[in-house]
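Continuing the batch. This is chain 6 of the set; chains 1 through 5 are on the previous pages. Same settings as before, nothing changed between runs. Recording input and output for traceability.
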Amino acid sequence: MYDFEARHIIEALRSGIPSRAVGQYFSEARPRIMKEISGRLDMVCEQGKSSGMIISGKYGEGKTHLLNTVFNLAHSNNMVVSYLSLSKETPMDKLYLVYQKLISNTYLPRRRQPGFIHELEKISAGSPVANEMLLYALKQLETDKLYYLFRSYLNTEDADEKFLLQADLEGDFMANAPLKKIYRRIFNEPVKYNVNFTKTKHCRDYFSFMSHLFSQMGYHGWVILMDETELMGRLGKKARLNAYRNMADFLLPDRCPEATFSVFALSASYTEDVIEGKHEYENLAEIYPMEQEPAKTVLDLLVRAPQLLPLTREEFNEVLEKIQDFHGRAYGWKPNLSTEALMESTQSGGYLLRTKIRAAIEFLDQLYQYGKAGHTAIDELGRETFTEDIPVIEDIE
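Output for chain 6:
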């Protein structure tokens, strides 16, 4: 009987495409960094203390897999998770675009699909959560736009208005004029902003509002995972410096939204290629001589970011044993290989972890299909035997 979950794991590993399922089942490697991350998640859950960290690693060494492992760990702690790969369309220097993509890739615990609006719709006007959020939006944010918007959202009975207000909360920001019109229609009173909202200056209000909302909805915190951070290096000089400033809002505890933990993953070569190669400290001193913080602190964090080292032999053996188990369950057979034989098969996979794993799966594929691969063969009971290349007479002569 085939195990389709196991087959999904094997096919994900074979393709090299990161998978949340793989992150769930292959989470024991790199115990030191996972212990630190687990401790930080506990601090968010138990004390509401926000923080962030940066991890670096070479291509194919498991950065995205680590983020998927954190994803599953956060969900097991009843935390909301948002996952985003930075790109040309979602650059870190434009926080309002980052917010929009993050919200569209936000997963509630035990949910396989993104989305939280269905939970937001359960909040009724006058409820304790609604009153708390309105007070927070009125008193704790830089602007009070979200007070007028959320109050309108809770009280409107017009489907079109509700859709526009909901879209704004998801990052499709509406102009001030239509919001004022909606609010006046519902409450018969004008909107008087303390500060006129602009998405380029005040998008941080939305991150703060959402983090507080998730806490009020009963979740233990908000985990924000950002991959492909090295793509910041393709931005222009000033855009890169603004991107570092925006990163500070996810990394520095005194600037983070409440009860959040953020992880940025980037290439190990970023320091050499960008920070040193493009003279980022000199650029910062030139463009922002009197306002180098918090970008300078973020640059320091990028330089000191812990690097994912290659797995130890013991850690890799554990991975190979799991792969053998999943392969047997996936295809209904019982491979009984020694770890040494499977380890030897990975030598053809080069030096990248991803390609080594793919080589091990291809080795198991051959044994499953043909009963032998290289010098290894499988008998009827799935036990391994070894064969040697016997030279023919012509070779001896």
